[in-house]
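Lecture 7 notes: from sequence to structure.
We start with the chain below.
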Amino acid sequence: MDLTDRQKKLLRAVIEKYIETAEPVGSETIEKEAGLGVSPATIRNEMVRLTALGYLKQPHTSAGRVPTSMGMKFFVDQLMEEKSLSLKDEVAIKEELQEENQPFDKLLKHTARVLADQTHSLALATNEDNDIYAAGMANILDMPEFYDIDITKTVLSLLDKVEMLSQILGQLSPEEQTKILFGEELGVQYLEPCGFVVTRYQMPNHRGVLAVIGPSRLNYPVVIPTMRYFSQILSNYIVI
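Predicted structure tokens for the same chain:
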């Protein structure tokens, strides 16, 4: 079933608010802040419809709604507007990664650290040998989703489970440049609230993937173009 324009605007408003706050979003909030020009009753009815269609869900302890992985995918594919990196950010990233003639493993460690700083998330850089370099572990501790020790422990333990992590990152098919994965789809306990953004890079002599791990409400309009820029820089890089 195709969504109406009003439903799309409402879904976008709910998801953007959820990305900002990490809290279930109620109809009152949408009425006050989204400027949809419809009554509170209409907003409530449309949120019920979006829930029935599988785009939103209602946590047991809240009257508000949060997006499902289906809703987030629809947002990323059809509703969100990517935010271009500022020239200042582009220059800063480029300068950070421009050290000449550094060994490949050092470059990947450095790339993971800069990507983690830029996205305020857990960042990974891998090579074709499945070596994995991680940075930004402390970043996820600031996010409400990771106040649950079981979730945090599961995510951080992935860094020691190279085979499992490689399977997750390997879901980026050869014809895809960037892919978003949601924990709900992975079948791993405690990963349900998590989101993964994976993108590939292809250097003259090396190839691999970059990844960002955070909550399912990652700020995709910023994270995706940021990762694309990192991929472009690496793909033009020559290392010893």
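Points to note: The beta strands are 56-57, 66-67, 122-126, 132-135, 178-182, 194-202, 207-215. Residues 5-79 form a domain with the Arc Repressor Mutant, subunit A fold (CATH 1.10.10.10).
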